[in-house]
Amino acid sequence: MTQYLKSREAILLGAILALLAMIATRFPAFVSPGNLLNVFNDTAPLIILALGQTVVILTRCIDLSVAANLALTGMVVAMLNAAAPGVPIAVILVLAVSLGAILGAINGVLVWKLSIPPIVVTLGTMTVFRGLIFVISGGEWVNAHEMSAAFTGFPRSVVLGLPMLSWIALGIAALFLLLVFRTPLGRAFYAVGGNPHAAVYTGIVVGRTQFWAFVLSGALAGLTGYLWVARYAVAYVDIAAGFELEVVAACVIGGISIAGGAGTLVGTILGALFLGIVKNALPVVDISPFWQLAISGSAIIVAVTFNVRQNRRRGRIILKRAEGHA
Amino acid sequence: MQISVRAPAAGAATAVPILSLDGITKTFPGVKALSDVALALYPGEVTALVGENGAGKSTIVKILTGIYQPDAGAITLAGKPVQFPTAQHATDAGITAIHQETVLFDDLSVAENIFIGHAPRTRWGLIDWPALRARATEILGRIDADLDPRMPLRELGIASKHLVAIARALSVDARVVIMDEPTAALSHKEIEELYQLVERLKAEGRAILFISHKFDEIFRIADRYTVFRDGQHVGSGRMSEIDEGELVRLMVGRSVDQIFPARAHQIGAECLKVVGYAHPTEFDDISFSLRKGEILGFYGLVGAGRSEVMQALFGVTRPSKGVVRIDGQIRAIRSPAEAIRAGIVYVPEDRGKQGAVIGLPIFQNITLPSLSQTSRRGFLRLAEEFRLAREYTERLDLRAAALDQDVGQLSGGNQQKVVIAKWLATRPRVIILDEPTKGVDIGSKAAVHAFMAELAAQGLSVIMVSSEIPEILGMSDRVIVMREGLIAAELEGAALTPESLVRHAAGIGGTA
């Protein structure tokens, strides 16, 4: 399909390769296949969350509660594991995904049924979820020694040369590509964001489509909650604090329009990888981590400039027609 | 270029216009909006500008307020030639417009709205709030408006907002006040108050251009009239020297310059019947039927409730009462999805806003309401989508490079074809076309008309909402005229004339 090869993704891929080439000149070992796989594995949680965020942003919404959802779900499964180490991982996974989806559904219902602006809803639920972690944990940490080996080992277990965490990110990416490009719901995400009025007239219920986007985003946040807590072998109130902004940044850098309806999942994945490479490369090439923020910030501004230019081209066509019927 | 005596003939010897426009021509790509028109406004007098939709009334208002520049012609203000390259120039020259929907700021106070852009300043260049409030109170007092200058505009009704707009006009000492359908959204009592205000503006010597479709108010408050038809000036004079019949004839009398497709009339059995449709605020007592292969026209003034009825029929809004029968079966339509399933589709008026999804490729736009057809076990089949899209774009002769091209790159006419293809692909029984040729150039208009005739010939039933009399007359088998949310008349055969349409829509002569 031509849309996969559209300039936007190609430019981003070029930028990533250029970035890797620059890093290679100072620290060749960084671009060794083994290290690149490590970088990918390290970026996997960001990729998973950004995929969920993408469908939310496509429908003209935003989900700021993903990191809080992750932390709350992570705390719940960590406490469960500490209390009942015998519960199998499959049950933990189902529980994490379901709890995350329920938290996402709360956002979705508030947006759909009460028509509250998504940024307000998720800002509110973000704070509520963080507060709940404190309530259920009493502010205590769940530490590595309280978790079972199976619990912490799952994301790191290597299958066919790749850690489970990487496989899950790849699997989610494949599922989402199928969902977005080959199901009516995926099409509806674009229609609702691209032109909500027209979507209504074609029989699509805008609020319900947004609801499902929030449920998907929440489910992935819940899943990542378990993976995160298990990988770092610790759960506390403030894990992944502020991570939601990095997730949104990955989407924006990947070309997902904040105005909705435009952008591809491939772009999102590349956007997340870009951020992951910056984050992992800067320490090894001996640049202050504070530069990481500056680089990520600049990348966002460059990406948004691209989006604005695309929109402007669109605007001109509409104006010509408007002039025609005045 | 011919020079004709276009200045109002009678009584012109004594009065001198404060503002006059002569030989104004304005062309848009494909459309000549105004052709050598004249308009004169006199101090202390109300001039009514009359004409059908598309006659060029709003174009001339935009020229007067500096939004459009004429291609040719002269504007004379108080004896001196002037130009209005920007809206600010027109405002500075003392021309102000009060629009149908007020262009004010809902979250600012009454006083701020009156003085926005020219607020009194202190020595330090800051806004002088006490002076601003005092002057606002003074101006509101002059028009007897009982409004608190500190009240946010949001809390006011439309009539009060008009008062604020008028106060704003006075605050800049406007010599010319343009009122573009100011009563369209007002109640009877508010209209009376507006009339009194117009009288007061006249007494102050201001020239007023009053645009209205309502004949009763034109005859009530106007001193002079000017009639435009199809972008041309067809007459002007004193109200005292003309009657309703003559004014209607000036408005609609036209040479037949549009050719409509000849249609073989093969109208079948009744397929849609609407009985007693009502909505709490928009329409009431709407009953009509539609037969197979029929084109039913819905005529009325803008805001008569036609689109609202169609939106209810399509499930976008819910009527409070009423029954819809399709082929005799009662169908409850609670959402657009149910309407589409019942075989009703709606091509809305504002296609930019309600039609195509810019950003999706052509084929995905077309299959959007038909995804259940093109998917299997919950998965879309792209090949099937392309097949469906190709079938209908070929039927409509769509000019596009490829079906996976973004609709945003298509011209307006082709975007419209995509929207129509989208609906035809659902294989509807009834298609509702809301202002199908609005914003379409003359060449494409004929194509849309021919296509509409073809649809009807194939047995599809068409409801066409249109404000253009030639289109209504040329295409419809039967016409329902709506006025103020009610059905004013159902016209057919010999009763279907331009005069009867205008009379029923405007409520003249026994139909009020």
Automatic annotation (TrEMBL), chain A:
Membrane association type: Multi-pass membrane protein
A GO cellular-component term linked to this record: plasma membrane
UniProt KW keywords: Cell membrane, Membrane, Transmembrane, Transmembrane helix
UniProt-annotated location(s): Cell membrane
Primary localization class, coarse: membrane
MF GO annotations: transmembrane transporter activity
Keyword Glycosyltransferase tagged: no
Keyword Cell membrane: yes
Transmembrane parts of this sequence: 39-59, 66-83, 89-112, 119-138, 158-181, 188-206, 212-235, 247-278, 290-308
Signal sequence residues: none
Entry protein name: ABC transporter permease
TrEMBL record, chain B:
InterPro entries per the UniProt record, alphabetical: AAA+_ATPase (IPR003593), ABC_carbohydrate_import_ATPase (IPR050107), ABC_transporter-like_ATP-bd (IPR003439), ABC_transporter-like_CS (IPR017871), P-loop_NTPase (IPR027417)
Topology in the lipid bilayer: Peripheral membrane protein
Superkingdom, taxonomy of origin: Bacteria
Entry GO MF terms: ATP binding; ATP hydrolysis activity
Keywords on record: ATP-binding, Cell membrane, Membrane, Nucleotide-binding, Repeat, Sugar transport, Translocase, Transport
Record has Nucleus as a keyword: no
CDD domains: ABC_Carb_Monos_I, ABC_Carb_Monos_II
Alphabetical list of SUPFAM superfamilies matching this protein: P-loop containing nucleoside triphosphate hydrolases
Domain ABC transporter: 19-255, 267-509
Localisation: Cell membrane
Major localisation: membrane
GO cellular component: plasma membrane
Protein name from the UniProt record: ATP-binding cassette domain-containing protein
Organism: Halovulum marinum
